[in-house]
Amino acid sequence: MNMELSGRGKPSPEKSHRVMARDNADPLSVGIGLNAAIVAVLDNEPVVLIVRKDPDSAGATDVLPFGPFNPREHRTLEGGLRAWVQDQTGLDLGYAEQLYTFADRGRHSEPADTSPHVVSIGYLALTEASRDHGLTHGIWRSWYQFFPWEDWRRSRPEIISAEIEPRLKLWAERAVTNGSQSGSIARADRVRICFGLDGAAWDEEKVLERYELLYEAGLIEEAVRDGRSAAQSWTDRPKLGLPMQSDHRRILATAIGRTRAKIKYRPVVFELMPPEFTLYELQKTVEAILGPHLHKQNFRRLVEGAGLVEATGEVKTRTGGRPAKLFRFRKEVLLERPAPGVRVSAPPSRN
Amino acid sequence: MNMELSGRGKPSPEKSHRVMARDNADPLSVGIGLNAAIVAVLDNEPVVLIVRKDPDSAGATDVLPFGPFNPREHRTLEGGLRAWVQDQTGLDLGYAEQLYTFADRGRHSEPADTSPHVVSIGYLALTEASRDHGLTHGIWRSWYQFFPWEDWRRSRPEIISAEIEPRLKLWAERAVTNGSQSGSIARADRVRICFGLDGAAWDEEKVLERYELLYEAGLIEEAVRDGRSAAQSWTDRPKLGLPMQSDHRRILATAIGRTRAKIKYRPVVFELMPPEFTLYELQKTVEAILGPHLHKQNFRRLVEGAGLVEATGEVKTRTGGRPAKLFRFRKEVLLERPAPGVRVSAPPSRN
DNA sequence: CTACATATGCTCCAATAGAGCATATGTAGG
DNA sequence: CCTACATATGCTCTATTGGAGCATATGTAG
User: Fold this and answer.
1) DSSP string of B71-111?
2) Regarding beta strands A139-142 and A118-126, do their DSSP bridges make them parallel or antiparallel, or are they unpaired?
3) A309 vs chain B: nearest CA distance in angstroms?
4) Strand, coil or helix: B215
5) Mean pLDDT throughout B216-244?
6) Which end of chain A is more exposed for a tag (fewer CB within 10 A), N or C?
7) Per-residue pLDDT tens for B277-289?
8) Residue numbers in A 182-221, CB below 7 Å of strand D
9) For residues B250 and B200, is the Cβ–Cβ distance under 8 A?
10) How large is the average pLDDT for residues A104-129?
11) Contacts (Cβ under 8 Å, ≥6 apart) of A226
12) Which of the given ranges, A34-38, A217-221, B48-52, has the highest pLDDT on average?
């Protein structure tokens, strides 16, 4: 890459900061962290693989598998990620895709006025939890423990009305006097859209937007840690999900949002399934990810109609009722038109 | 970010390479390049903003606006990008979104065995070309000059059958003897799916996949430059679009694919339009991006029905026919349900 | 053998979207 | 002024999709 333009960067002469346990003299070089949100579904519960920093201490923060990108060793970013995951969990990653690259200042437990010098690249990996792919370290934890307001499987989570809604509305009001920032959407509207308040529809894909909103409002523990919540009056700040180290919860939010979106238009559910499964098990897995219950007959029709699966010829008998046919993923769909996902149209939203 | 794991990186002691016109002693630090694919539509032609490296020299390679991320100056990645764009083109960027982070070795005109030490983050920006947002440098160039095989506005580009298809089939055959690489899709299938051969449907969103396939097959000038095409027998290699510096063409491919995908489910077309426009102008803009012609009446019905636009009350008379009503974007849709794009269902592909 | 639970097939219907016809209202040229 | 023409715009007809529910099949448990 030609960098003849570097000179315009006007690098400041101030001393560099110690990052990644090393000294860094070049103002244009940064460390890159590779972070993996490894998702599976275990007993109808969507889970993510956690590597506890210190499993014994009580106040230990949850951590995703991660490590620095080392251009000497890693030929590609994804290769580096796989190496770190292998190293830290023993897991041999299957499906993986890049999510996003974050570099905001002060999102890493450092003083906010410090240059980050570190950039986080988040990855989403999907795997089958029940099968042993070499996993030796790490624990599976429900992703709803980190995002309780995302769990709509039973019904609307009470935490929204009880804790989130009133505090966000307060936060939105405090900004009204600042005059309407033309161009950007007003706080109150963002709150309404993100959390589906006042008649707005809940969009299960907006996981990151919701997290960022809560962070911005200082309602997230990480925001306090990062010095974003200027010691507000709400010392009664509620516990909104388990915190994570660094910006890992933000990465996980991105991963959940992407999983929910992608499952609808690409056949990625099957990364979460065993080689053979019943259609009901498949449906339960989708529902674990997306939340709302689906119409069973229509789900079957859609999945079969799209040619996503083929019967193995065998049945699973211990279902408590009529035996269910076993299916397997029809890999040939990948060779056909824009291979679809399990399309689930939104509920008949009257709008 | 906690980097207690850095020690496992087993940094090799070999001398570091000179990258980005500077020395870099730390094996874990890399330079980050911010690259902008700035897209507009000018006279029904989708264009991208190019900053010629050397406008006068004949063999000059096209370059996207780009510059290194400087954590001292740039609070965020996107902020850094905007600063570089402003600096190099005078343009004040409006809509921008991150695309992808690339770090493959040897994609930067360097020897392939050299560590990259530089990571490229690509961004997509949409703007209105006809309006002056401060643009002082750079030229608009049709994106189809870089990707002639993507131009389906008239009909199927001849370059596919004439140049691409035979060479890719040859390339696919050469790999058959290697035994079928289990797990990955066979070359022949990839070729078929990517380019819609042998009855497969053309997916206008697979821009990056197609480019990568051509690169892999050594049919792209950048692949030769990067030393990927081992001086094959085809010294008769055809000119498949204009080359670009570094990995900029790959970034542009990502940008085109994303634009085509996003225009269908988010109201981003309007970033490309003037404040007021006729529905026909809007349709022409969408067609410039997506290619196939749309049914005029249905397009109107969909756009109006989705509440994306509102009439200004005025008409544009110099249309050569009945005057067209002028419309403007109804920004309120952003406050409604998952604000839709201009849904255009695929042609009645019999499948 | 019966009650029950789940699987599975099929029908009905509302909403969506593709396609085309008909009409409105300008410009251009005699 | 009048006519040919071009584009805009409204409306209808119809095929397809997807939401919802009924009916039947085939197991297990007591």
Assistant:
1) TTT-SSHHHHHHHHHHHHH-----EEEEEEEE--TT-SSS-
2) unpaired
3) 17
4) helix
5) 78
6) C
7) 988 889 889 989 9
8) none
9) no
10) 75
11) A106, A107, A108, A109, A112
12) A34-38
Distances (CA, A) of B122 to A33, B19, B34, B119: 18, 19, 6, 10
Q: What residues of chain B lie within 8 A of the CB of A6, using their CB?
A: 20-22, 67-68
Angle (deg, nearest 10), helices A248-265 and A207-216:
160
- Asked if B259 and B123 count as a contact pair (C-beta separation under 8 A), the reply is no
Strand partners, A140: A49
- Coil, strand, or helix at residue B309? strand
Instruction: Determine the Cα–Cα distance for residues A51 and A341; give it in Å rounded to an integer.
Output: 30
All residues at 6 or more sequence positions from A166 whose CB lies less than 8 Å from its CB, including other chains: none
So what's the pLDDT on residue A55?
57
Sequence-distant (6+) residues with CB within 8 A of A172 are: A186, A187, A188, A190, A191
Say if CB A75 and CB B104 are below 8 A apart: yes
- Report yes or no: A237 and A224 within 8 Å, Cβ to Cβ: yes
- B208: which residues sit within 8 A by CB, 6+ positions away? B250, B253, B254, B257
Contacts of A185 in chain B (CB under 8 A): 334-335
Counting Cα atoms < 13 Å in the Cβ hemisphere of A135 gives 18
Paired tokens of B292: 């196939």
- CA A320 to chain B, closest CA, distance in angstroms equals 36
Calculate the average pLDDT of chain B: 81
d(CA B121, CA B124): 10
Considering only CA atoms, name the residue closest to the C1' of nucleotide C5: A321
Q: What is the pLDDT of residues B114-147, one digit of tens each?
A: 545 789 999 999 999 877 777 888 899 999 999 9
Q: A248-267, pLDDT tens digit by residue?
A: 999 999 999 999 999 988 89
Look up tokens 């406050």; give the residue: B335
A307: CB within 7 A of chain D nucleic strand: no
**Which are the contacts of A284, defined by CB distance < 8 A and separation ≥ 6?**
A44
What residue ranges define each of the domains in chain A, with the CATH number in brackets? Answer: 2-146+247-256 (3.90.79.10), 152-233 (no CATH), 271-336 (1.10.10.10)
Element holding A324 (H helix, E strand)? strand A324-329
Distance from the Cα of B5 to chain A's closest Cα (Å) equals 7
pLDDT band of residue A347 (cuts 50, 70, 90) is very low
H-run or E-run covering B287? helix B279-290
Reported confidence tier of residue B184, pLDDT bands at 50, 70, 90:
low
User: Do the beta carbons of residue A148 and residue A157 sit within 8 Å?
Assistant: yes
Distance in angstroms (rounded) separating the CA atoms of residues A150 and A145: 9
- Nucleotides in chain D near protein beta carbons (<7 Å): 5-12, 18-22, 25-28
Q: Which of B152, B123, B82, B116 is nearest to A29 (CA)?
A: B116
Q: Other CB atoms closer than 10 Å to residue B254's CB: what's the count?
A: 22
Residues on chain A touching B114 (C-beta within 8 angstroms): none
